[in-house]
Design brief:
four-stranded antiparallel beta sheet; 356 residues; seven-stranded mixed beta sheet; 10 helices; Rossmann fold; single chain
Length: 356
């Protein structure tokens, strides 16, 4: 018999993080089954959440709601990674188990600590058991680096592949995680930005990758033009496939090339809106974004990193200076928020800015 319970409702992309956080805060109701639908995860929680717990959730989750929902009682079989691996690993290593995995299509991407390296196959097979839709488990084998923002992976369980089809907000994307950058943790941002685009706009996506922003915008709006630029030839090939797959050929123009050169040669003064999802170097391209905007100005979605010694306010000030150095004026910061944690004491942030 289902039981009514308070719950956390979060986008699926934040599900693993929300589960780990709710357990750390000791607010998850372990007697009830976690539920999900196409877009969201529903985590049953205990009644009477403290102000401290609510504050922590606000600090670490980009998007969540607290509501009520009927949940089935939890069955007795093991479901979590820790439950499956209990007895399989030395007890002193259990605390170092990965707390989350990025799910891209039917591929799970996990970071395995060095002390667990010898047990990675056991861990990978356990991840397959906890995620019925996952066919491959990849372990990160380095950091994101290089012009194309790529990372090396090792297959630790399941099928030996790095390609998949990822579904997100009604769109499908061919992805090869070893050849083109893609982060499922930005699902909420892809959807949020797409929802802000108005009919009739021209959008320039300066670092488009396989097209998660561009395709979602085109699927959502009838009358829109999106110029999707990327320097990685593999990413642009996948972008072209995704444009065809989602039937938005009349709205999205994939362009291979360096964003600076492409704007100078083809896209000067055309954009109502510019997307800058290159957090490592976006500040270096502020002049390019300003050149792409129409003479009357427009909206810029700017992504960057901040850390413990570099506040969001400091980033806002540097952003304003970069706009002014480009010969434009920052009219207003429309929205700013930490999007996700990318490393200990480091976060990816977004600024939505009106520039004229």
């Amino acid at each position: 018999m289902p039981k009514e319970s308070a719950c956390l409702k979060v986008p699926k992309v934040l599900g693993e993080k929300a589960i780990v956080l709710s357990r750390k805060l000791k607010i998850q109701n372990d007697m009830l089954e976690i539920q999900k639908d196409e877009n969201s995860l529903y985590i049953p929680i205990t009644d009477g959440m403290s102000e401290t717990a609510m504050k922590t959730l606000n600090e670490h989750l980009a998007n969540f709601e607290v509501s009520a929902r009927a949940f089935p009682e939890r069955k007795g079989e093991a479901k979590t990674l820790a439950e499956i691996l209990e007895g399989e690993l030395p007890s002193h290593l259990m605390a170092t188990l990965p707390h989350s995995a990025d799910i891209v299509g039917d591929i799970a991407i996990v970071e395995i600590p060095s002390e667990l390296e010898a047990h990675r196959t056991i861990i990978g097979n356990a991840i397959l058991k906890t995620n019925k839709n996952v066919k491959t488990v990849l372990a990160k084998a380095g950091t994101v680096s290089g012009t194309y923002r790529l990372r090396e992976f090792n297959v630790v369980a399941g099928e030996h592949k790095t390609t998949t089809v990822h579904k997100e907000h009604g769109c499908q994307f061919y992805v090869d995680v070893a050849r083109a950058y893609f982060s499922p943790r930005l699902s909420h941002e892809h959807n949020r930005v797409a929802s802000l685009v108005n009919e009739g706009e021209t959008v320039v996506d300066l670092f488009a990758g396989v097209g998660p922003f561009a395709v979602q915008i085109a699927k959502r709006r009838e009358n829109v033009r999106v110029f999707a630029v990327d320097v990685n030839p593999d990413a642009v090939e996948f972008l072209k496939k995704n444009v065809r797959l989602n039937r938005v050929e009349a709205k999205v123009w994939p362009i291979l090339g360096d964003a600076r050169k492409v704007v100078d040669e083809k896209l000067l003064g055309v954009a109502d809106r510019v997307i800058m999802n290159l957090p490592e170097k976006a500040m270096e391209f502020m002049d390019v974004a300003c050149k792409a905007l129409k003479p009357i100005g427009g909206i810029v979605h700017f992504y960057s990193f901040v850390n413990a010694s570099d506040s969001l306010e400091c980033k806002r000030l540097r952003f304003k200076e970069a706009v002014e150095e480009s010969g434009k004026r920052l009219e207003a910061i429309l929205f700013s928020k930490s999007v996700r944690e990318t490393a200990p004491f480091e976060w990816q942030i977004v600024l939505d800015a009106k520039i004229c």
